[in-house]
Amino acid sequence: MKNQPTNILQFELSPLVKAGVLITNLQNLIGPGEHDFSKPHRDTHYLLIIATNGRLELNLDFKEVAITAPAILFVFPGQVHHIIQFKELKGWVITFDPALIDSAFQLVLEKGFRSPLLLYRQTAFYQQTVTLLDLMEKLQSGVPDSYSGRSIQALLAALLSFIAGQIVTEAPDKNTRESRGVLIEQAFSQLLKQHYKTWKQPARYAAELAVSVAHLNDTVKDITGTSVSTHIQQRSILEAKRLLSYTDFNVKEIGYEAGYDEPVYFSKLFKKITGFTPLQFRQQFRD
Fold this sequence. Notes:
Layout: E1 10-11, E2 21-25, H1 26-29, E3 42-43, E4 46-60, E5 63-68, E6 71-75, E7 81-96, H2 103-112, E8 117-118, H3 124-141, H4 148-170, H5 179-195, H6 202-209, H7 213-224, H8 228-246, H9 251-257, H10 263-274, H11 278-286
Parallel strand pairs: 1-3
Antiparallel strand pairs: 2-7, 4-5, 4-6, 4-7, 6-8
Helix pairs in contact: 2-4, 3-4, 5-7, 6-7, 8-9, 8-10, 8-11
């Protein structure tokens, strides 16, 4: 594959977005638009996809995800994705500014949407979700007034709360009783998203959370099954995989972008985690 872009294609919120929210009918989204959804890219905002009919296949951070309606899928800021194919697709996609999502909902949704959330048409949850979406679309397409934006934001907050409640109900976490541990793990996840490039040592996260390194590691491992160090490495290597696949940066530059100044160490770590050297991974992906 030649003529790779110099960086991963990234899209900001559309100029059509008002008050930080845009709800679009999926039948309109898949036609000609502001950018080509079939090409790998990432966004600075959230995408909430609700399919009520048909099928959608997309690649999401190197995983092929298939949605058979009815279902809900989140695409989070920074995730590289593109549409592979679709058939008879109906429903909505909501684009919204990250500033509009409550931090508590954010954590629940990010952990709950590692795969699509399947819906069932006969349930009250499905019917109420469709009602909220239909109301949001009507408000957006109607004659705006001074409170239209706030009304749509309020409906979005209600929808996210509704979905978060469904996730917790369907998949109760045995660790929720240990609220202190859950809060620590959630706070660590938030810090990791923000600082994985520069905070490479578990001690830095432990100090920020005012706990010992041993307690942080035991807590995170008990809840997720993975150590703090492994989480840090995996998050860094994910960004490296994105850059290897979709840019023409050399290995040294990619290691630096992932937070590693020493190319040899970065290459060894990459192979340890993926089973491939950086160049082998790039070649395999492009072939």
